[in-house]
Fold these 4 entries.
Entry 1:
Amino acid sequence: MDTFSNLIGGEWTPSSDVTENINPSNTDDVIGTYARGSAADAEAAIAAAKTAFPAWSRTNVMARHNILKAAAAEIFARSKELGDLLAREEGKTLAEGIGEAGRAGQIFEFFAGECLRLAGEKLPSIRPGVDIEITREPMGVVGMITPWNFPIAIPAWKLAPALCYGNTVVMKPAELTPGCAWALADILKRAGLPDGVFNLVMGKGSVVGEAILSSPDVAAVSFTGSVGTGKHVAMKCTETMKKFQLEMGGKNPAIVLDDADLDVAVGACLNSAFFSTGQRCTASSRLIVTEGIHDKFVAAMIEKLKATTVDDARKDGTHIGPVVDQKQLDTDMKYIEIGRGEDGAKLAWGGERLNRGTPGFYLQPALFTETTNDMRINREEIFGPVASVIRVKDYDEALSVANDTAFGLSAGICTTSLKYASHFKANSQAGMVMVNLPTAGVDPHVPFGGRKGSSYGPREQGRYAAEFYTTVKTAYTMA
């Protein structure tokens, strides 16, 4: 069995402890053993990043461009291999895994271009003979704590802009999915990234993550994960006045109006709620449907779910893979019991534990009907293949229900009315709005992020990433 070490100061560094990377489609399949770093490992990585920062922050922009471009090219060339690894360690279908690997390549390619577009401003002063220059400079050492559900795309969309703008990095990937992060580290090392510029320390959040949060040498922290952990990250960062960026949960609505194209609406909601096993912060777990189309929509959704295959993520014909691990499966099953128990909702389809040809965490997608927005299954993020239908009278009620949540990441509407589509785009309390599209699925060159309890700090992705990974300097010069 292969063993994979941490990358610290340009060296592959073994750890005294390791963890097995288990395939959720087949728990007998161990992908490899991965280092479980210590606080000392994290501190060594931070020191290496601090040492590398002065030279990297002043590196010629073409050199940065060439490294990011080379990384993008290798990711594209190996997208099937990387997608297979992703499907094997996280449980996304092979097609979704290959797609995510390609997205990581697109992100690196975009920020390779941004290296050559670094810009500032030159403005006249109100004082005669004085020039003003406004420039952006890198923050310094950036700590990154990434989740298991997008194990190559999210590391990419944090890492590529950080390097583009001249920062050095210490990354702690999710312990459940270290393989893709390790592969990304290997690609960057071979692309010519100088030693210490990017450091990978795998391990527990309570150990490695805490060391990153506590270090006075870390200037900024980018985090994606749960709301509870995000609040902890915020509190720890304020102790040392770190800049921080949080992407957290969602309880995203998808509205279906009476005038919607039924096939479009069912396809969008099926994708949003259940693909990637519902393990997306942008998944729409609240399907808000007006009464004129409600019954037809529910019947059509159930027919689609009956034709949906849940099986090994890497198997031909699989539409939905397994849940990521036993803990998440237990959480999903708990909420299914809450839905049909204390909430009093109707379990219209699914929700059963499934057995397949290999031992894995297989769950039949669950669709609840006869639900109200105050039920726990409609208030709390489940993060699994569980969705609820909420019947409403009209658009006005649908909008009110959609916005009645502590979250505000993504929201969708299915309608053929330009009036309602335009009104929803203007009045949805979400950071991203989709019209006749799934709520999950975004482009790599535009901002990603939400409002309320879903996000805090500057947006991720696209040119807006500069808001987090740089600081602004204003310089005055007497001519």
Entry 2:
Amino acid sequence: MNILVINGSPNGENSATLKLTRAFLEGMGERAETVSTAELNAQPCRACYACWTKTGGKCVLRDGASEVLEKLRAAELVIWSVPLYCYSAPSHCKALMDRTLCFNRPQVYVGADGRAHHCGYEDGSKPTVLISSGGLPDVAGNFDGLVFQLRHMFGPDTAAILCAEAGLFLNPSAAPLTEAYLARVRQAGREYRAGGRIAPDTQAALDRPMLPRETYIENLNRVFSCGQEG
């Protein structure tokens, strides 16, 4: 299967989000090509709309993103492995997301969700998975903007694995918790491979925090208060 992973973390191979993505691929029993957006030097979309009016869906900019856009176009499955930055994507990853405008057309339709969409990949014709992690204790209220964006861009069936409390992956003593979470991510990969979706029970387990929120907040605040003057 031709799978492309977009690694949106500036931490490259050390990304906690990428660790989740690899577990998902293990569950699928698949390998993937990985592209790091931090290394692309992608120019921002300049809204010239030449891809809609002149070039038949080809972006006129020629830079590090150009080849990646063709890889995205050819992939059978795209996994956006994107850490949560200020409730959205890191800026270098967002630059590539914006450039996927060329996968759509200017014509608009109203989807089953009641929202206006551009014809093109917004109809869900490009199978897409979002895997994200953040340092906050809750999924709800923190990942909403990123999930909305990906599902509006690539279809409402875009699967989402959202790991709150990802800071635990940096703590070796939390290994029993993080290994249990990675096992659930592998299960999600198996389910997605079998039917193109994650089972509701597995999704609920993935959305559940690894530690009670009060405990996580207390520990996080203790770490970041070290050395600070009162």
Entry 3:
Amino acid sequence: MLNYPIAIFKDESMENYAAIVPDIDGCFPLGDTIDDTIQEAESLIYDHIEYMLDKGMSFDFYTSEIETLKTNPDFKDTLVWAIVSIDDTKFSTKQVRFNVSWPEYLLKRVDRYAEEHHETRSGFLAKAVQKALV
């Protein structure tokens, strides 16, 4: 599990709460309450990491300490600090072997396509699945 700190803000001009996840660029959850904002942060963190991995972007599973972040002037107006725990094993890029049963003709077509495009069967199938899941 990784513990991502989030800084939650609210000022008089805002109807809801806004947050920043300092360790994940572009992750700005909103919520009607502090609890809603924390739940939204968890969802956005998972979505953000999944998006980056789907796009082949690297992602550093680094988390900062709240005590360190508190010294940053960008967070001087933080109303509440919270922690969102993320199960980073959901994003394992470890290669896993699995068996499937396909009609022989289809497997031959896949192999022919992969060979013609200088790819491996596994690489081609992984790309096809990623494209289909978008």
Entry 4:
Amino acid sequence: MKAIIQRVSKASVTVGEEQVSAIGRGLCVLLGISVEDTQKDIDYMVRKILNMRLFEDENGRAWSRSVMDRELEVLCVSQFTLQCLLKGNKPDFHAAMPAELAQPFYASMLEHMRSTYRPELIKDGQFGAYMQVHIQNDGPVTIELESPTGPMDPKQLSKQEKQQQRKEKMRAKVPSESGREKAASRPKVDPSASSGAEGDVSSEREP
């Protein structure tokens, strides 16, 4: 699951000519649900969103209080386009959870957030509707958050695998290369010569 979290002075959602939700100061959260998301992702995102310290305390010290500490509002908006994967310049949304599954999943997340916090302070848009989201960002403060178990771009995964393979090959080469370097840097000893540091080589060979 992915989220774009914005600290706002105010935010609202309009569908057509009707305003369906509005909040004052607090957080506006755009949520992108993936096909691989589970209850663990919900638990993680709710905990982070509600406890992230994006607000000042009563003495004006920044980054000290969470939305729960300040008893502020949260506006959540379902945003499947956050799961976009670009194929050239064309957006692909196959990583997003299908609407018929995403709607109850999203509702479950809202319920979890409301039961963790105060239900009257959690607002949301209208799932699946064409919405106008009006956000007055305060700061601006915008945080990108992704649950640890969320999906990974296949291209990015392939890139990481190739990088790991290159590292393993380099580690395998290092001992042999260092051994050759040591051999090349080791001074050649003339068997018939003597060294004050190591003793007389020729005398050591005598019976």
